[in-house]
Amino acid sequence: MQTKILSPSREWLELAKKYIQAGEVVAFHTETVYGLGADAFSDEAVQKIYALKGRPSDNPLIVHVHREYDIARLIDGEPPYAASLRSAFLPGPLTMVYPSTGKVSKYVSCGLNTLAIRVPSSPAAQAFLREVDLPIAAPSANISKHVSPVTARHVYDDFNGKIPLILDGGACNGGIESTVLDCTGEIPVILREGLVTREMIASVAGDCGIYKMKEGEKPKSPGMAYKHYSPRCKTAYFIAEALEDAIACYEAEVKSGAPCFLCETAVCARLNGYETLDLGGTPEEMARRLYMLLRKGERQATLLIGIEPSEHGGVMAGVLNRLHRAFGVNV
């Protein structure tokens, strides 16, 4: 199969629709990461996503719709706070989990009686979703457990020859996946942290919880696996207070390999003379750069050494969640 990368045009929208209607899988741009999308009503198409990614069959998918799509077709009611949250944050990097009517493929929610729905703000995503006018099941467009893709080239690197089309909307400016929010209870509960923070949600809904997955429990949301977003090289991870230990780790590796640090700007300044990848100085910069630098690090380093950023609240909760999973840190 030839994999085409096409820039936005009337032609690619029509072609994408034909592929989706034929049960194929198409990669598309969102403001967070690229998605690997298929018709959410089709068992065969949804199963193809799992096969392409090598994704565990118990890891549910998110359904993407355009902003005018009537989600009442897909959900079995919503609490009043959910409507307020939709008004405040959508389109945008927020996925909302509702009781499901069961109309989409059973493979989307992996046997759960809920459905995760997202309305991306990316103009390219909205154009694609309006053209197909279907709910599109889509995880991130990467091989399972690999670093999520934030450029069309990242998708191509993982799926060249395996999918027919990548809709190129440029680099993703959000950088980490959407916040996933359980809206089935009396208060909203975050299942996966992201760019829409607990504080932002609570300011609209009045309260917001954080879900902690129990050992052996079936995932309620994508991104809850222990090891995820992982670069294809050796990794090590240190807290900022253990910088001397991190340097010792670097110097041991440099004798036979090519180590590199991944750290925030302030720490990079303290590592003058060492190979570094600068995450940035603000939470938003770190979110935007994280996956790009993890992909860069796996290409140039035999050992990528992560240094935990000093800030932990707000958007950084989502960044740290991805860092910990990328480096296999169990917290």
Give a quick summary of the entry.
This protein is α/β, with parallel strands linked by helices and 331 residues long.
Describe the SSE topology:
Layout: E1 4-6, H1 10-21, E2 26-28, E3 35-39, H2 43-53, E4 62-64, H3 80-89, E5 94-99, E6 114-118, H4 123-132, E7 136-137, H5 152-159, E8 165-167, E9 179-182, E10 189-192, H6 198-205, E11 209-210, E12 234-238, H7 243-253, E13 259-263, H8 265-270, E14 276-278, H9 283-300, E15 303-307, H10 315-326
Parallel strand pairs: 1-8, 2-8, 4-6, 5-9, 10-11, 12-15, 13-14, 13-15
Antiparallel strand pairs: 2-3, 3-7, 4-7, 5-6, 9-10
Helix pairs in contact: 1-4, 9-10
Can you describe what's shown?
With 331 residues, the chain is α/β, with parallel strands linked by helices. It folds into two domains: 4-210, DHBP synthase (Alpha-Beta Complex); 234-326, Threonylcarbamoyl-AMP synthase, C-terminal domain (Rossmann fold), CATH 3.40.50. Helices cover 32% and strands 18% of the residues. The chain has helices at 10-21, 43-53, 80-89, 123-132, 152-159, 198-205, 243-253, 265-270, 283-300, 315-326, and strands spanning 4-6, 26-28, 35-39, 62-64, 94-99, 114-118, 136-137, 165-167, 179-182, 189-192, 209-210, 234-238, 259-263, 276-278, 303-307. The strands form two sheets. It has an eleven-stranded mixed beta sheet with strand order 1-8-2-3-7-4-6-5-9-10-11, sandwiched between helices. A hairpin with a 6-residue loop joins β2 (26-28) and β3 (35-39). α1 packs across α4. The longest helix has 18 residues, at 283-300. 49% of the residues are buried. The model has no long low-confidence stretch (mean pLDDT 94).
